[in-house]
Amino acid sequence: MVISPTFLDFYQLREQPFGVTPDPRYLYLSPGHREALASLLYGIETGRGFLSLVAEPGMGKTTLLFELLQRWRGHVHSAFLFQTQCDSRELIRYLLNDLGLTSDSDDLVQMQAQLNEFLFRESLGGRPVVVFIDEGQNLTDAVLETVRLLSNFEATDKKLLQMILAGQPELAKRLSNPGLAQLRQRIAVQARLEALPAAEVIHYINHRLQVAGYQGGELFTAGALGLIAERSLGVPRLINNLCFNALSLGCAMQRKQITSEVVGKAVMDLSLEPRAPTPQIPQPQSTLPTTPVFRSSSHSFCPWKRDNLFRRRLYQMLALSLVCGGLLIYFGVRNGAGTVRPPARIQQDPVSTSAVTSSQSPSALPVADASSDPQPHEFSRTGPLENWSSSFTYVVQPKDTLRDLCVSTLGRYDKVVLSKIRELNPDLRNPDHLDVGQVIHFPLNPPK
């Protein structure tokens, strides 16, 4: 699809921010990407010989390899091989051609001898040779054995050839086969790339917009960013496709800001909507009002946590029922001088949820939805439960931090937000350390 100049002019972009080419300028170094890059750089610098990089499709393996190639450009003699559906003879010929060597023979032994001679010349000149092999999962066992033999090119004190073998998780499974044990043992550094968490998805999008020259306000609403993180599952390639289609639709609809409505249409165009709804167990009717439960981004955006989502919701519902039951008992004791009795309206109509009067318990509140845009709320409730009507509760999960939760839900983390959090959570002793299972109250709207 050709990008019209009006697309860039409409959003004041210097260039396309969500392209499909592995441009190192757009590489976003998340903690996982930064760790993998540092491991590979250290492996090359120390001459470890054989390195590997494994990640799911679309995670940015090739972009990371190009970043490595760019950082070592001028200091090493490099070759980049991506044609991996080949036999051993073709692989060696591809390698010679990329190193600038020509061979008049198709004999595998002669080509390897020519490569060995070249490596010795470069080593005497103090110029290391680094070979990048992408899409390594396509290599057959025979070709992988040839790759292992290439690592035998060495002097008495160092390796003559540094190799980085990159591929999808299938490559790691292949290397675990007993027949490839010798190759696996020679891999000194094994780096992996994982999906981006929800908070990193937001930073990823803003990073690419800044590189593309965007200087305006918030181009994506909080609801739009949440929906992108949820549907992309943290995969950079899917994030790029969603953002590109959302911006294209936004330009066609003359929307200066991308909302969750626009992203939802892009999700449908890319067929990224959920395949099947999660089965729900019918809930019994209750006369007790409910407190809103926020669907955290760390639950819906991380696929490895979805299996426990229903169980946590059930625990939260039981806990909230106990709290509400305790409040009814408390008010019953106060009104009945020690005799516990339900409110009169509930006795007359025990089934209707509207029977609870406003003076006896808080009114039913809407459930917060992380995938929708924030809407203004007006509350007239006063009394000891006033904070409940303007906040939602969240149960802390492993690896949660207060900063990430505030950025994901409120869009920022500063002194004003922290002051409001402390006001809603007087028992919060250490904001820098949250305990798993701890209940935190957050304001529905960002404080001003």
Protein model, in words:
- The protein has 3 domains: 5-14 and 197-269, Helicase, Ruva Protein, domain 3, CATH 1.10.8; 31-193, Rossmann fold (3-Layer(aba) Sandwich); 297-443, no CATH class.
- It is α/β, with parallel strands linked by helices.
- Helix 10 runs parallel beside helix 12 (260-269) and helix 11 (236-252) crosses helix 12 (260-269).
- It starts with a helix and ends in a 5-residue tail after the last strand.
- Strands 2-3-4-1-5 form a 5-stranded parallel sheet, sandwiched between helices. The protein has a two-stranded antiparallel sheet with strand order 6-7.
- The protein has 17 helices and 7 strands.
- It is elongated, with a radius of gyration of 29 Å.
- The protein has helices at residues 5-10, 31-45, 61-72, 88-98, 108-124, 141-150, 169-175, 181-186, 198-211, 222-232, 236-252, 260-269, 297-300, 309-336, 344-348, 402-410, 415-424; strands at 50-55, 77-81, 129-133, 161-167, 189-193, 391-395, 439-443.
- Helix 6 (141-150) links the parallel strand 3 (129-133) and strand 4.
